[in-house]
Write a structure and sequence with these properties.
Helix content is 4%, strand content 65%. It is built from 2 helices and 37 strands. It has helices at residues 4-18, 488-491; strands at residues 31-42, 46-52, 55-61, 66-76, 81-92, 95-101, 104-122, 128-152, 158-168, 172-184, 189-202, 206-214, 217-218, 227-228, 235-236, 239-249, 267-278, 282-292, 303-315, 320-330, 335-346, 349-350, 355-356, 360-364, 366-383, 390-413, 421-431, 435-447, 452-462, 464-465, 469-477, 480-481, 492-495, 498-500, 511-513, 518-519, 522-532. The longest helix is centred in the N-terminal third of the chain and has 15 residues, at 4-18.
């Protein structure tokens, strides 16, 4: 089955082959309003691991499945460029986090009010106008969780515990990219349909227990306060939606059609350097262990006093340096193709490190995380012209080949049985497989002379690294290299969606682990030079 993103890209190619008409589009208007309704399916969800009698399976939580309603108002700058402001509401469908088994079940659903400012680049052929729309999503989400479990009391009797929780407060910030086409009915009315890719995650600030029952009887009074502060967690509202609606022109102004065949400078090459700012990053937790001195302090830090998991920060591999080279071909003055090659090198997320006091020391096991990714980026390009400036938009696929490095520094009791502790340092590399995502670019170029343009652009990248393998590449104990002393199962991992726990009994084979995903999502600001041929 082909990726939905790949199918959308084929649609873009079909648009580009046909979109070379020079006919004046009489449906264009200075101001317009739109209304649409649609439905979507969730994509790029979070992983959930389920162990049922030794059979480990993994599924993804995708709460972007549901129905959406959108109303928009827009202003047409010329026949190729307009700006829109959309207000929308998304109503999610109930989603099983994991299938019911042994009396346990969990469901999620969410809703969201959305404000979406965006730019629209379009071209025309006849009564059809294909377009690319790119904008930000500012969302006010809510998430509801229904949980049910079966338990036994001291007398061996079964009971059913049901709980419903609401997560709320805080905002979601993400990216919306769509490709669509309008069909002109008359000078005032048009029909349109579009495929929308939403990338927005939500980290709630508050939680509230709505109901808490055993065998149908309310026992929420046992909880005390029903409101709590949840641990940092992402709820994924990412989705692929299909919307249809109607567009109404409010004025009779007709912006001039700019599409022309340019027989010169059809080909170009480009290079840029930029910096990425993370969007929809991963929430990173670390195991934290505190050690205390023994009686009288005669032996330093010889006993564990507490162990917990703490949130240390967020990580996206796209947060950092980004370099890009590319080449393209213009089919006419407004539409073309671009092929890019991008390299992103992430900043390093570091834990607080060892925290010392007079009688104790606290160690964060995950000390740092960093990554890099090489991306191949074929795109469809739409361009317009305003005075000497050329605003443009690209929409394309990202095929990424990434690596993520995790460093662990732990302090644990020596294996020789003495009341001493070893300092252990290890570095794991996660790699393998090709990741598929998409990006949308908004940019502006200015001609320096007949051959060279200076340009600046913002690229909205949506891609996750989902490795197939992991390898321990460094391992020291008290500063001594001990990597070769570890067996294969201790320093190699193979990542699979399902497996049996009995598969991990052979120390001479890599350990099988459940899937893990690393965000490389980012908004990248770049400056570059383009040379036209």
């Amino acid at each position: 089955m082909k990726s939905p993103v790949l199918i959308l890209y084929y649609v873009l190619v079909a648009f580009a082959i046909h979109a070379q008409s020079k006919n004046l589009d009489t449906s264009l208007s200075k101001f317009y309003i739109k209304a649409a309704i649609g439905g979507g399916i969730g994509i790029n969800g979070d992983y959930n691991t389920e162990n049922n009698n030794g059979k480990v399976t993994n599924s993804t939580t995708k709460i972007g499945s549901g129905v959406s309603f959108i109303a928009s108002a827009g202003c047409q700058f010329n026949s190729n460029l307009s700006a829109e402001l959309s207000l929308g509401y998304f109503y999610g469908l109930n989603l099983n986090v994991f299938p019911p088994f042994d009396g346990n079940s969990e469901k999620l659903n969410g809703s969201m009010f959305q404000m979406i400012p965006s730019f629209v680049f379009s071209t025309s052929f006849g009564k059809l106008r294909p377009y690319i729309r790119t904008g930000l999503i500012i969302g006010l989400p809510e998430v509801y969780e229904d949980y049910s479990t079966r338990f036994t009391d001291v007398n061996g009797m079964y009971h059913i515990l049901d709980a419903k929780t609401e997560y709320y407060d805080g905002k979601g910030l993400g990216i919306q990219t769509s490709i669509g086409c309008t069909y002109t009915l008359n000078t005032k009315l048009s029909l349109f349909g579009e495929a929308i890719l939403n990338d927005i995650n939500y980290t709630p600030l508050k939680g509230r227990i709505i109901s808490y029952t055993v065998d149908g009887a309310d026992i929420s009074y046992l909880l005390g306060s029903r409101i709590f502060s949840p641990s940092p967690v992402n709820f994924f509202f990412n989705a692929l939606s299909i919307n249809a609606g109607i567009k109404f022109n409010l004025s009779n102004h007709n912006p001039q059609l700019l599409a022309k065949k340019d027989k010169k400078n059809n080909f170009y090459s480009r290079m840029s350097l930029g910096y990425g700012f993370s969007i929809n990053p991963d929430k990173i937790n670390s195991y934290v262990t505190s050690y205390d001195k023994g009686p009288g302090g005669q032996i330093a830090y010889d006993q564990i006093i507490s162990s917990s998991v703490e949130y240390i920060g967020s990580f996206s591999g796209g947060n950092g340096i980004n370099a890009s080279i590319g080449a393209g071909c213009m089919l006419n003055e407004n539409i073309g193709f671009d092929l890019g090659l991008n390299e992103t090198i992430s900043n390093t997320l570091k834990s607080p490190g060892a925290v010392n006091s007079s009688n104790s020391v606290k160690y964060y096991s995950l000390s740092s995380q960093s990554g890099n990714m090489l991306q191949i980026n074929p795109s469809l390009l739409l361009v317009t012209r305003i005075w000497k400036f050329s605003p443009y938009s690209r929409l394309g696929l990202l095929t990424g080949f990434g690596n993520v490095y995790r460093t662990y520094d732990t302090y644990s009791q020596s294996s020789n049985g003495a009341m001493t502790f070893d300092q252990i340092h290890s570095v794991w590399k996660y790699y393998g497989g090709a990741s598929i995502g998409y990006n949308a670019v908004l940019g502006m170029s200015y001609p320096l002379n007949s051959k060279f343009d200076l340009y600046t652009e913002a690229s909205f990248n949506n891609i996750y690294e989902i490795p197939t393998n992991a390898q321990m590449i460094e391992y020291t104990v008290n500063g001594v290299n001990s990597l070769n002393s570890e067996n294969t199962s201790q320093k190699s991992e193979v990542i699979k969606a399902s497996y049996n726990t009995s598969d991990n009994n052979d120390p001479n084979k890599p350990t099988i682990e459940s899937p893990i995903k690393f965000s490389f999502n980012a908004i990248v600001g770049s400056v570059g030079i383009k040379m036209r041929f």
